Amino acid sequence: MDQVEKVIDEKKQGKPLLTEQKEGNSKKLFIESYGCQMNMNDSEIVAAILAEQGFNTTGDINEADLVLVNTCSIREKAEQTVRNRLQKYNHAKKHNPKMKVGVLGCMAERLKAKFLEEEKIVDLVVGPDAYRDLPNLVEEVEAGRDAVNVILSKEETYADVSPVRLNSNGVSAFVSITRGCDNMCTFCVVPFTRGRERSRDPQSIIEEIRSMHEQNFKEITLLGQNVDSYLWYGGGLKKDFHKASEMAQATAVNFAQLLDMCATEFPKMRFRFSTSNPQDMTLDVIHIMAKHKNICKYIHLPIQSGSNTMLKAMNRLHTREEYLELIENIYKIVPEMNLSQDMIAGFCGETEQDHQDTLDLMEKVKYSFGFMFAYSERPGTLAAKKMEDDIPLAVKKRRLQEIINLQQEHSLYRAKEHVGKVQEVLIEGTSKKSENEWKGRNTQNTVVVFPKEHYKIGDFVNVKIEDCTSTTLKGTAVGYSENN
User: Fold this and answer.
1) 262-292: pLDDT as tens digits
2) Could you say which of 152, 257, 273, 321 is the most buried, measured as most Cβ atoms within 10 Å of its Cβ?
3) Annotated binding residue 262
4) 468 known ligand binder
5) pTM of the predicted protein model
């Protein structure tokens, strides 16, 4: 089981993004991304903005005029990786003096002075809300000046920028619906690097999905730091909703309504969403999931700890009991729902009893998947400023291993529930282990592999599940599904 955040796909880390070459563009852009799917999506927006400025993407750093790295501050490992990459860029720069190097994304805000003044390793620093300013910033850099814009915006959602889809399998795509986060979890740096929460106009979301539909994409994941708190009332921050006019409040669109609109408008496309926060998830979302066959029956619902003491220290605005009640209601409304978790082992002050509470909660829920890590302090967070990181590394590692071992048991338990059933699978590509097998996912987000026969990528196929491991279902196709 990957000890990785739900939204961090290790296969995509640092892969240079390649887009269709636009005729007449003479400059070369090398761009790679680290971190969450929001970052990958942001890089698509950046490529679209710079394509209008004469840049085509390249996979060869040595021929690049502009090298950009889209960064992540969530974990120390991601930050260290980016630093190592910057050293490599600078090596390439020695051979190509006209090359300019820029840092985008979440590290930009926090480390701007370090990068520009102290270490002098970059020419350009651009925060997540300033990508629209890239043409001006690139001009500044080309004129020999350093360029910085890390201002966080109250409005920016990039609703009118149509992202260039990069490194896509041509089957599934991500559409950002919110930016920023208002939940000040003490371990998390996101509110400081991505700003306050604001939502995109639902019409612009529908239009983006329509364009994906026309390009034959079959599955869309609605994306946000916290999708459940999506709220459109004409623009503005979520926290200012109470100041809006009565009319604006009455006609506002929440997440359940947005989900309903998407699933109704595109009945042949599958919909997923990520990431959810338990304190913001409402049962009307679950009822909408039950209503539509094309909304996948899977929720990533991070809790981080099963202990009330830890939840309070983390500033999670719900208790263990409220979380378990939510889970119980989810299973009542959608019995076939699959759930996954994020867990942090060894947060500040965690006792052995707190750890046992986490294991106990996992036993009660039996998640299908898990994304688990030992706590590491992130500079700039409330925990770093006010709490002592007092759990020895050896204890963190042991607790993490116990969580992983239990999750593997539960993953196998949940996988076995699928055996003997016929399930719809969307084919995404060839199996990693065999050229003769397709892989795809069922509605519950579990990977399914089966013999290729005459089927092709992008087909919806009914597969009889015959066997499983803790992470993969194995079966044989029995025909196209009605969705095909």
Assistant:
1) 999 999 999 999 989 999 999 999 999 999 9
2) 273
3) no
4) no
5) 0.78
